[in-house]
Write a structure and sequence with these properties.
The chain is an all-alpha fold. It is built from 9 helices and no strands. Helix 1 packs parallel to helix 3 and helix 5 runs antiparallel to helix 6. The longest helix has 18 residues. It starts with 7 loop residues before the first helix and ends in a 5-residue tail after the last helix.
Length: 179
């Protein structure tokens, strides 16, 4: 069939449509996508990957996080046509590792995104949130301070988010520790 010879981008778009229509996607289908040749990634397959990932994050489609994580991690290792595309792959990789409670790989992914685009505080804000959720307010504070410096320098517009998260970190630090 023609579908068997479709590009990686076309197969991802089909998976996205199936997800939208059925509200779920079998893990085996994501695993099959991860095992297929992907080639050099341009905006078509990366958009398909991120749109599919967004459906999972927004709980609009059910699929195994571990299967999507494997797929996005494999894609993030390939050549992309722009730094912006690789940045998005790293951000989604981070989100899915965080969903799997894998703090180390989640933070490593968003730090890689930060290295690709050092003028946005978003990856560091994500890392700060995840460190706070993991019970490490000092590390969260360190990440957030870096994000705040970037926000100020580049007028990125995240002051409200940063201030709110700073309050949550301060509250977590001041809470009595369980004995």
């Amino acid at each position: 069939s023609l579908a068997a010879h479709a590009s990686f981008g076309a197969r991802l778009q089909r998976a996205y449509i199936e997800c939208r229509l059925n509200g779920k996607l079998p893990g085996a289908q994501l695993e099959s996508l991860a095992d297929q040749p992907m080639g050099h990634l341009n905006s078509y397959p990366v958009t398909g990957l991120t749109k599919l990932g967004a459906l999972g994050i927004q709980n609009q489609c059910q699929f195994p996080d571990v299967a999507y994580s494997r797929l996005i991690d494999r894609a993030a290792q390939l050549d992309t046509t722009s730094h912006g595309l690789r940045y998005m792959l790293y951000i989604y990789s981070g989100y899915y590792h965080q969903r799997l409670k894998q703090l180390g790989p989640a933070v490593a992914a968003v730090q890689a995104a930060h290295r690709m685009s050092a003028d946005t505080p978003v990856p560091l804000i994500l890392a700060a949130r995840w460190y706070l959720e993991a019970g490490d307010p000092p590390q969260a504070s360190s990440q957030l301070q870096q994000a705040s410096d970037i926000d100020r320098e580049y007028h990125a517009g995240f002051t409200g988010d940063i201030t709110q998260l700073q309050g949550q970190i301060k509250a977590a630090i001041s809470r009595p520790k369980p004995r």
